[in-house]
Amino acid sequence: MSLSHDELTALARELPADVPSADRLEQVRTAILASVAERPPRRRSWLRPMLFAAALGAASAAFAVGLHALVVRGRPGAQNGVAAQTYRAQIFPHPGASFVRAWPSPDEIVRLTEGTITVEVSRLGPGERFRVITGDGEIEVRGTAFDVSAAGDRLAAVRVMTGRVRIRSGANATTEIGPGERWQARLLAAGAPAAAPPENSPASAPTVAVAHLLAGGRSPAPVAPPPPPRNVPGPSSRTAGPAPDRDPSAPPRATRAVETLYDEAWGELRAGRAGPAAATFERAALAAAGTPLAEDATFWQGVALRRAGRRAPAGRVLVAFIERYPRSPRASEAAAILGWLLLDDGDLAGAERRLTAAARDPVPKVRDSARAGLAELSRRRASGARSAPPELQPSGP
Amino acid sequence: MSEGKLIPLRRVAGRPDELSDEALLAGCASGERAALGALFDRHHAAVYRFLARVSGAVERDLDDLVQATFLEVPGAAGRYRGTARVPTWLLAVAANVARHHARAEGRRRKAHARLAEVPPGGSPRPDEAVERRQLVLRVGAALADLSYDLRVVFVMCDVEEVPGVEAARVLGVREGTLWRRLHDARRALRAALEGDRR
After folding, report:
1. Which of A94, A281, B27, B38 is 20 to 30 A from residue A61's alpha carbon, by CA?
2. pLDDT score at B89
3. What's the whole-number mean pLDDT along residues B100-128?
4. A196 in contact with B at a CB cutoff of 8 Å?
């Protein structure tokens, strides 16, 4: 058999080299971006071609931003000009608004605790998301302009100017509204779809995913603790409807709701249902934002994800936990678990950093686990071999 | 007065989907995750394909290699000289990652195991499709048996159709060396297939 060059090449091209499924691809992409977040940026070299390309990009971006600013100047709700530029959106806060940009692209999250913001989201690329979340709700968009109001960290109203938004509030079903429509807690405006209002009951657990809020950015902005729910000032009267009525006993009820979630998560974890437990811890962490319970819930979310075999999300949550609560009694424990994760993923430098930090912990179990990790790391450096790591089993309440 | 906390966001100068590969690479060099994400979105398919053929890795191992390749990008982007297109440069980064991969003993065992699964040359072929599939498998086995340098050159130039001049630049070899390696790779592959046949 004598193959020609073309035949040989054609056969080689038929070798299986399929791009993986969208899920696997997303996992890889997320893992890459999460890992990069931990690395300090390198100094840019003085390379003419790169500078030239960057200059071209900057010029085109400046032109685009200028044009964009002209377009949005007259848009309703844009009272204060451009206030905050995120990767895919511009946010115009109304007087009294309190919000933070909690998580960057590709899964941007803006955390709104009080007042009204007008958001204009440009068209999202594949795999990108943009969400505004409150303590009890979530608004997701695919390129649109809308106002969203919160009172006392609860979603109060949404008004869409262009595009469509999906609203998840409390335990209620998802609602979608379109241009000119308005969703309002308790009182529905004319023309809006029949959306049930959020309920002030322990059963109305937040449905927002907190992993992205907490996970991974180098210096995620701290979420401002929600203001006291009593005497909550109403949102802008122009855009927001009345805030949900609040009983004077709201704080205890909210606390009970969070504790219920936390207990529920623990029940799931004890029953070996690590995946659901992680999701419930996540909700508890969000609902308890700004309180010590959020710290615990985040740590256990990372542990539950690890036990569920979801290594990449577990790593992200643990990184976020360590960065957000560096003085937590659990910080070293999280570092030890993270170190083993990184070790198993072959990131020896990252593993060494985490395990070294954990090896100084006064708790023998944590210290021993970290030292065992460092010993394993040395062995792997010497041999290049990989073996299954022993998992540090944190002790729960 | 607004109490909104404004968190400045470092960003690539423009939308990733509007930027050139070179601009995205510049963004990666300055630590822009969004630029790296955009670069991944744009070129992951080629990197997957290339690594699968060069390393023989599958599934999770292949994911690890692709991940390692893109994790190298932020650090290596500063060394990009603009002498080759960014996709070709990415393949060179992937080739380096694959070289390290090939050194791991465990990976070698897997590669050998894969060879063992290749059907023998004299197995019956009920129809042309089966015959073709067997031929492809033999090419894969022969490719895995090539030295790393020959394999990379063959996959980069013949399979991925990277121009020889560009491939020589990103691989850091002279053009003459590249053409010699390509010639040797083709000859070795043909010889392996003919040997199977006998």
Report:
1. A94
2. 92
3. 53
4. no
Residue A245 near chain B (CB below 8 Å) = no
**Secondary structure (H, E, C), chain A:** CCCCHHHHHHHHHCCCCCCCCHHHHHHHHHHHHHHHHCCCCCCCCCCHHHHHHHHHHHHHHHHHHHHHHHHHCCCCCCCCCCCEECCCEEEEECCCCEEEEEECCCEEEEEEEEEEEEEEECCCCCCCEEEEECCCEEEEECCCEEEEEEECCEEEEEEEEECCEEEEECCCCCEEECCCCEEECCCCCCCCCCCCCCCCCCCCCCCCCCHHHHCCCCCCCCCCCCCCCCCCCCCCCCCCCCCCCCCCCHHHHHHHHHHHHHHHHHHHHHCCCHHHHHHHHHHHHHHCCCCHHHHHHHHHHHHHHHHCCCHHHHHHHHHHHHHHCCCCCCHHHHHHHHHHHHHHCCCHHHHHHHHHHHCCCCCHHHHHHHHHHHHHHHHHHHHCCCCCCCCCCCCCC
Contact B193/A3, CB-based, under 8 Å?
yes
Contacts of B23 in chain A (CB under 8 A): 53-54, 56-57
Residue B58 resides in a domain:
yes
B8 domain-assigned:
no
**A29 contacts B159? CB cut-off 8 A:** no
Range among A64-78, A120-134, A180-194 with highest mean pLDDT value: A120-134
Task: Return the pLDDT at B157.
Answer: 92
Which chain A residues touch B27 with a CB distance below 8 Å?
A: 54
CA distance A304 to B148: 42
- Residue B11 domain-assigned (yes or no): no
CATH number at residue A197: 2.60.120.1440
Please answer yes or no on whether A61 and B13 come within 8 Å at the CB atom. Answer: yes
Q: Is the pLDDT of residue B119 over 50?
A: no
Q: Is residue A120 part of a domain?
A: yes
Boundaries of domain holding A186: 60-213
% of residues, chain A, pLDDT over 70: 63
Interface of B with A in 120-179 (CB under 8 A): 132, 135-136, 139-140, 143, 154-155, 158-159
Residue B149 placed within a domain: yes
Could A28 and B78 be called an inter-chain contact, meaning their C-beta atoms sit closer than 8 Å? no
Q: What is the pLDDT of residues A59-100, one digit of tens each?
A: 776 666 555 444 433 333 333 444 677 777 888 878 777 777
Q: Looking at residues B111-127, what average pLDDT do you find? A: 48
Predicted-complex ipTM score: 0.72
Closest residue of chain A to B49, computed from CA coordinates = A17
Q: Note down the domain range covering B162.
A: 16-197
Above 50 in pLDDT, residue B1? no
CB contact under 8 A, A386 and B106: yes
